[in-house]
Amino acid sequence: MRRAAIAILLLLLVAPLAAPVPAAAAPAAQGSSACEVAVNAALSVRGYPYVWGAKGPASFDCSGLTYWAYQQAGINIGVSTYDQQAAGVPIACTLADLHGSSSTCWQPGDLILLSYTGGQHVALYAGSGLFMDAYNPSTGVILHDVAADSFYQDHFWQARRPVECAGVSIDPGAPTALPPGSSPGIESIANILPPIALQLPWSCGACSTGQAQIATLEYPSFGPDPLYPFKWFGVWLWNEIFRSLICWLLAIAQALLNALSIAFNAVIVAGINLFWRLLVLFMLWFRDTFLALWGFVAWLRGLLWSWYGAVLDQVQQIAAIGLAVQALAQLASEAIAAVGEMVINLAQGIAYLVGLFMAIIPGMVVAIFSPTAPPQLAEIQTFFLFQWFIDFLRAFADSKLWWAWASFIAIVYLRFVLWLLDELSTLNQ
Fold first, then answer.
1. Distance (Å, whole) CA 238 – CA 244
2. Strand order of the sheet with strand 156-161?
3. Using CA of residue 358, residue 363, residue 365, residue 370, what is the dihedral sign?
4. Phi and psi at residue 157, in whole multiples of 5°?
5. Tell me: the pLDDT tens digits for 197-225?
6. Which residues have CB under 8 Å from 65's CB, separation 6+?
7. Which end of the chain is less crowded, N or C, counting CB atoms within 10 A of the terminal residue's CB?
8. CATH class held by domain 24-161
9. pLDDT tens digit sequence for 246-279
């Protein structure tokens, strides 16, 4: 008895600290009735509100609806889309296989999954080409024609069949029309922890199965033992009272741990999804702020560019004025040079005239007042080379080539006349 009591106390102390283990796999195919139960359960909550993270029965999110519907049929497909994407088996059905009541690829109870930026989405096929869908907070739980939904067309991911439901036919009714531009709500991320399963060294057959049962003790054999009544009573207490009590205490500990797991997961998942949504809002705000700032930068750039253009025009005008001033300066310089050249030419002409008068007039005066030739001329005339030159010229003039001499003299005088006219024209300019 003492050992049993110690074992019970140790078990109760260690049980809450037991390590979690992965959740049990979804049950195998249960037959067509499971599909009918799941689909009818989903149809029964049509119009219920959409609440993120809700798993029923008063409100749902997308995976909460499918999870709750299959729970009514006794089948666990997981509480999130990240769990349900592995439920059952994949099937090759697509949106192109939905043809209303004549759809043959899809069977009631099949799941359709979407994948898009921000999460995933899931809905339950109800028959006649329609799906039960906890769509978003504005629509709630609706019967939905996904083939007419552009969001489904753009983000279809896969289809899965948790339970084989061949031959099941359900008329779900008329679908709900969605407002233009509607899109599903963001699904929660995967659970951080799987449901906690208490690992027991034994279990009671009446409480759970699949593990070694708590052994019953054999009653002592009747004999002349004075302690026999006490031994028999101790075995009876263990077999009939303490054994069942331990079993139920373990079951209660299991339930409490599972509840703690669900609450813990909900808090962590809600916190992470809140952080994710805040991050998405921050990114949107950052995008809008960046676009606004970029628009301001573009406006400022245009303003500066217009100012630069205006300044450039002013600079070009100043440059044009500078070129005009430079041209005027060059013209003035050329004019001054021309005037200077004219003055020089005038002075040269005056000098020529002065020189002419100084050379001719004194000679004429000397010739008038002194008829005799200057001694220098007499000396030259007596020089034999001068005489030869004069005789040569006279002989040339008296010969048949006199016209050549006359032409030469005429050219000399003509050249002098042309020079004089050129100088007079320069002085006139």
1. 8
2. 89-91, 156-161, 111-116, 119-127, 130-134, 141-144
3. positive
4. -115, -60
5. 454 444 555 444 334 466 778 888 877 77
6. 42, 45, 56, 124, 132, 133, 134, 141
7. C
8. alpha beta
9. 777 777 776 777 677 677 777 777 777 778 778 8
**How far, in Å, CA of 374 to CA of 363, rounded?**
10
Among all chains, which residue has been given the structure tokens 């500990």? 253
Q: Residue 419, Cα to own-chain centre: how many angstroms?
A: 88
For 18, which DSSP code?
Answer: P
Name the residue with tokens 């001329």. Answer: 377
**CB contact set of 46 (below 8 Å; sequence gap of 6+):** 132, 141, 142, 143
Q: Which residue has the tokens 């070009």?
A: 316
How many angstroms separate the CA atoms of 125 and 42, rounded?
A: 10
How many Å apart are CA 171 and CA 39, to the nearest integer?
A: 10
pTM across the whole model: 0.42
Q: What's the mean per-residue pLDDT of the chain?
A: 77
| Residues with Cβ within 8 Å of residue 176, at least 6 apart in sequence | 139, 142, 143, 144
CB-CB neighbours of 100 under 10 Å:
11
